Amino acid sequence: MKKTLMTLAMATVAVGLTGCGEPESKGVDPKIYTDSLFAVMKADRTNYTKLVVKRLGPAGANVIKPDEHWKDIDNGTLLPAQMFRAGAEAVAEMTDDFTYSLQSIWPINSQNAPKTDMEKKGLEYIAANPGENFYGEEKLGDTTYFTAVYPDVAVSDACTSCHNDHKDSPKSDFQLGEVMGGVVIRVPL
Amino acid sequence: MLASRVRLCFSAILIIAALVGCSGERGSTESLGTAEQQHKAAELLYKQNCKVCHAQGINGAPIVGNKKMWADRLPQGVDVLVKHAVEGYGLMPAKGGKDHLTEAEIRQIVEYYVAMAN
User: Residue ranges per domain, chain B?
Assistant: First the structure.
């Protein structure tokens, strides 16, 4: 009995000691916050591509038709990029706590071009360093923001052929495996 | 007091492990050098051709060094993994879209993945 108490006391001391020297908690690091948001976005986008478009589209059961002008087609469905934008727009209606968008320095839709210097710098960085993210801080108006940019990659020939052949695309030589644009997530600090 | 003793023990173990490690390596410095060079070469090939998807988990690509993501794939063995990488597999495009890569180069990268997942 005494021995158990002793052990328990020692264990408590040990736990106490390990606790020492750790920084006080100050809320979530913005990088962890944006990385987590991106993980969810990436998973949803992949699943939409894999479990809906690929399974039910022309490459699968062929019952839905992913198309830019999906609204005009009975069984039309959104392209993954449009689905992504629909999500961003729905979030923007709910909150100003964070914003996100799918952008490119070579956009089909000019609304998807970078608007701030930091966005442009980030998109250029991820294009030049495949597989890496970009993190920066920028001041817009009176507010300082944490801005993270994550790569969006040409994962299939469908991405490259549609963009390369699109009349509004400023670039016609995208290749499989190339960074085509990026997801910009911005949170006020 | 207890914590410092635990730490002391731990350091002792580390030192012993390091010493054992040293004596074990001594006999085979030459082959170790080439193994290291091969690892570096494979890492470079990975960065140039595969990192764009495999560093981030783009489209569900198993992240290099993420043991959890590789756990169910490793048991297939290197030959099958190489075959999948060369021919394409699910959402993995054949050779990651880099047609110029030889099967030997793909094998080099896959062996690097496997080493990083163990």
Answer: 36-117
Taking contacts as CB-CB distances below 8 angstroms, the residues of chain A near B97 are 154, 175-177
Say if the Cβ atoms of A151 and B98 lie within 8 Å.
no
Distance from the Cα of residue B59 to its chain's centroid? 20
Question: DSSP class of residue A134?
Answer: E
- Residues 57-86 on B with a CB inside 8 Å of A are 57-60
How do residues A78-103 score in pLDDT, each as one tens digit?
998 899 999 999 999 999 888 999 99
Q: Which residues of A touch B57 (CB under 8 A)?
A: 42
- Secondary-structure class of domain B36-117 per CATH: mainly alpha
Instruction: Measure the CA–CA gap between A138 and A124, rounded to whole angstroms.
Output: 16
Mean pLDDT confidence for B74-90 = 96
ipTM of the predicted structure? 0.72
Torsion sign across C-alpha atoms A168, A172, A176, A178 = negative
Closest chain B C-alpha to A10 CA, distance in angstroms: 7
Q: Which fold has domain A30-188?
A: Beta-Lactamase (3.30.450)
Helix and strand counts by DSSP (H, E) for chain B: 6, 0
CA separation, residue A5 to residues A1, A12, A160, B47, B78 (Å) = 6, 10, 68, 55, 53
| Substitution target from B4, B43, B59, B106 for chain A, most A beta carbons within 10 A | B59
- B97 vs B5: CA distance, rounded Å: 55
